[in-house]
Amino acid sequence: MNTTGNGHDLHARHRAVLPDWLALYYAEPIEITHGEGRYVWDASGKRYLDFFGGILTTMTAHALPEVTKAVTEQAGRILHSSTLYLNRPMVELAERVAHLSGIPDARVFFTTSGTEANDTALLLATAYRRTNQILAMRNSYHGRSFSTVSITGNRAWTPTTLSPLQTLYVHGAVRSRGPYAHLTDARFIEACVADLEDLLGHTGDVAALIAEPIQGVGGFTSPPDGLYAAFREVLARHGALWITDEVQTGWGRTGEHFWGWQAHAASGPPDILTFAKGIGNGMSIGGVVARAEVMNCLSANSISTFGGSPITMAAGLANLSYLLEHDLQGNARRVGGLLIERLRAIGAGVACVREVRGRGLMIGIELVKPGTDEPHPEAAAAVLEAAREGGLLIGKGGGHHTTALRVAPPLSLTVAEAEEGAARLEQALRSV
Predict the structure, then answer these.
(1) What is the number of other CB atoms lying within 10 angstroms of the CB of residue 16?
(2) Measured between alpha carbons, how far is residue 304 from residues 14, 23, 82 in Å?
């Protein structure tokens, strides 16, 4: 494959054949040709420290030998068979995920993406409850399919208002903005629970509440610990299910917990858990975990042509083994804790930084116009560009205004690399 040539030419070819709505970062988009560890290189040979991991997907490291070896060996045996045949790697990974999920009597269904996983969770919940009413969180993002767009509480990612579902939006996922921001954590939870109770009093039967423990596209915002546990008590009284969207928060990224829902565990595990991204370390894996009576509620036959394919399952098994054997959750807690404190110290001296938030290696930096509380998307775009110029790749997001920077390196990040990235990000922030 030719990895050299003119980047402008490739960009022109991209625009000529791919959709206009297929977003690209940077005024002059880059082609990433290869990576190793926490670094990637573009087609011009420039090296970057990767603090975004292909949207939180390169979870362990680029070109991880254990994953590369597993994929190569499986490719030499068989790439594909579909779910119509027994599949040893799929069963083995399902056994491990079911155990790790914390859901009793769990069943696992593999998909090819987080969007498809959330789509399946909605199918299960609405079939089980026999209603199409869904509760979702404001500022949320759950995918780009017809059903998941309709439960996304973020207008920047909602191209249509048509929907197969009736969706109502609940308050509480954004702690530092909105009508309850001034309250203590305990009073904030009380107010959000009262809002949920009031909402349920005005609607019919609800199938489920779907929520990201930490919102990804929303700018790494989150509620106080315990909010979803309090919500679950209310939902249980109404027979409604709790779906936790762990596409970005799963596998120990938050450091303190293996799953994001475990910060809200007082009322027990969720009914349905969705996952994707990091488990494949770049391979297309998503999935749903649910207790057996929910997973088995479908009355029609179903298969998956590509979900659970032998080669992706081999990658997932190798990647998960590496993550657990090397305690990357602990590393996310330790190195992430150092990184967030370093970024908070930097932010304290930069006028446009409103807040540095997050946990583990999932950190958001919200930008505002200096001296105000107004979102500053132009600054976020400028910092993104400046960071790239300085050899650092980060992401952005955040509500309606895309005014937050997203920092989410591979979980094997070293202390030296965290310091290097923080220094480069400080230079980018101060240049704007």
Answers:
(1) 7
(2) 30, 28, 6
Cα separation, 233 vs 239, in Å, equals 10
Helical (H) or strand (E) element with 192: helix 185-200
End-to-end CA separation in angstroms for the chain: 38
Q: Can you read off the two tokens belonging to residue 365?
A: 């930096």
Mean pLDDT of the region 212-227 = 97
Mean pLDDT (whole number) for 44-67: 98
List, in order, residues 6 or more apart from 360 with CB less than 8 Å away.
252, 253, 254, 255, 256, 329, 332, 333, 336, 337
Distance CA 284, CA 271 (A): 24
Q: What is the pLDDT of residue 5?
A: 54
Please state the rounded mean pLDDT for residues 293-310.
94
Residue 1 confidence class, pLDDT cut points 50, 70, 90: very low
Angle 132-146-286 from CA coordinates, rounded to 5°: 95
With 0.90 as the threshold, say if the pTM is over it.
yes
